[in-house]
Design a protein that fits this description.
A hairpin with a 3-residue loop joins strand 7 and strand 8. The strands form four sheets. Strands 1-2 form a two-stranded antiparallel sheet. A two-stranded antiparallel sheet has the order 3-6. With about 450 residues, it is mainly α. It has 15 helices and eight strands.
């Protein structure tokens, strides 16, 4: 591989690893907050136990998210000095504010964990609200750098020099709101379905009617209701994102849909692979006129095809697969949420069929995979640009060579960290089984569960 490809692979691997923990770092605190709110409303101590057990998982994941995020930041400086020069002059604001967002998250998580028995339920909810806010703000602020890369604003390049810098115009670039909304919603959705998948898997290992089964059933319903609502909102935001691409990054939309010729009444192609030689999507399912409607709310909307752009400016065409995978998983999770809630809450069935529990279990890892697909689509779909139509990836990469060995070491470190976090979570919850917490329950006189 060329040094450019290795540099891209190194940073891509770093972000693919970090984004898992960053996403769950947003979604899990939100689920803990929901469980604390339900505890405050219902006085059902099961929700308090959920919150405390999920907090242990949040702590372990945060322990990996911090170093992996630090590595990502250092990698930006070492691998992409040309890019960081522009960011340092124009777009440093999100990085500066993100420090305070992380401070809020860490501070109030510490208060929640270490002062749990000393503060009221309402105080715990306030702490968790601020933890979730800090985590969300961190994700949105860092993602806003990507939004800036897609729709740069707040500066001009004159004779090779950056002039007329407006940091706030760069911050509130045209992609800010769409990107922020999508990052927030998909992170919250992923957290809900990962928790739901965990509950479904535990239900598969317990008999219906058992104390453990009933406990996890409550977690399952809470996760499916939360995840289903957010999945619906995320799909609406995805529609807005497609219209945004139509206006600001038409070649990315064309690549994502395998559209080569500019046309109105453009079809939406589901599945298949894009063949640049024959300029068609093989084995895809075509929905007539749907892409035009998706792009502009009208079947008459003219969608620009790839042939309008120089071949060297085409994004890699495998982004079509990433786009289909992301959308397909989103629709799957929404369907599973509806089926699960309908079966448990409306049909009033105590036992959930195993096929449905396995389907929910699958939704957890699939949600994480959708996050990866979305990130690859967003970043790779912008190629060959680091900053769209301003700075190419080739011009922003480091001049350092012989990166291959370092890349292999990076991969080894991430493999070790991944195995370590799984082992720690597995052995912690094995040594602290749910039944121990359930057996310690009281009818409400335990000071740990008192509502003030």
């Amino acid at each position: 591989m060329s040094d450019l490809v290795i540099a891209r692979a190194m940073f891509g691997t770093t972000m693919a690893f970090h984004i898992i923990f960053a996403t769950l770092g947003i979604g899990i605190p939100f689920m803990i907050l929901i469980s604390e709110l339900l505890f405050l409303k219902t006085k059902d101590q099961d929700f308090s136990i959920m919150a405390k057990r999920w907090t242990k998982a949040k702590g372990v994941l945060l322990g990996i998210a911090i170093p992996s995020g630090t590595i990502a930041g250092v990698s930006l400086s070492l691998l992409w000095p040309g890019f960081m020069e522009v960011i340092g002059r124009v777009m440093a604001l999100p990085f500066q504010i993100e420090i305070y967002a992380f401070f809020i998250e860490a501070l109030f998580l510490s208060i929640y964990v270490y002062a749990y028995d000393r503060i009221s339920a309402k105080a715990r909810i306030i702490s968790l609200t601020l933890v979730t806010f800090g985590a969300l703000a961190s994700g949105v602020l860092i993602s806003n750098v990507h939004a800036f890369e897609s729709t740069p604003a707040g500066f001009r390049v004159e004779n090779g020099h950056i002039v007329d810098v407006d940091p706030w115009a760069a911050f509130f670039n045209p992609s800010f709101y769409v990107t922020a909304g999508h990052v927030a919603l998909t992170a919250l959705m992923t957290g809900a379905f990962v928790m739901g998948a965990t509950a479904a898997y535990k239900m598969l290992r317990n008999s219906p009617g058992s104390r453990s089964y009933k406990f996890h059933s409550k977690a399952l319903v809470m996760s499916l209701v939360t995840g289903g609502i957010i999945a619906l909102l995320s799909s609406l935001n995805g529609h807005a994102s497609a219209q945004h691409l139509h206006e600001y990054q038409p070649e990315k939309l064309a690549a994502a849909e395998g559209l080569f010729e500019t046309q109105s009444h453009a079809p939406l192609l589901i599945g298949g692979t894009v063949d640049p030689d024959t300029q068609e999507v093989k084995w895809g399912i075509e929905i007539p006129w749907a892409l035009s409607f998706l792009a502009g709310n009208s079947f008459d909307t003219v969608v620009r095809g790839l042939n309008e752009f120089p071949r060297e400016h085409w994004p890699p065409l495998f982004v079509h697969t990433m786009f289909n995978g992301m959308v397909g998983i989103g629709m799957y999770t929404l369907l599973i949420a509806v089926l699960g809630v309908f079966w448990i809450k409306f049909l009033k069935k105590e036992a959930v069929p195993k096929w449905l529990l396995w389907a929910v279990t699958l939704s957890g890892p699939l949600s994480v995979l959708a996050i990866e697909f979305g990130w690859i689509l967003a970043c790779t779909g912008r190629q060959p640009w680091t900053i769209y139509h301003v700075l190419s990836t080739a011009d922003s990469v480091t001049s350092q060579t012989n990166l291959g060995t370092l890349y292999m070491l990076f991969v080894l470190v991430y493999l070790l960290l991944g195995v370590a976090v799984i082992a720690v979570l597995y052995y912690y919850f094995k040594r602290h089984p749910l039944m121990n917490d359930l057996s310690n329950q009281t009818d409400g006189d335990d000071k740990n569960y008192t509502v003030h």
